[in-house]
Amino acid sequence: VCGGPSCYMYIYGNTTEAALQRNFTKLFELQERVRNGTETEPLPPELQPLITGDNDEGSEVNEVKKHREANMSERLNRFTVKVLHAAANVSVLFLMTAIAMRNLAVGLPPLEQLTSEVAFSTMKEPETNQDEVGHDEL
Question: What average pLDDT is seen over the chain?
Answer without folding.
Answer: 79
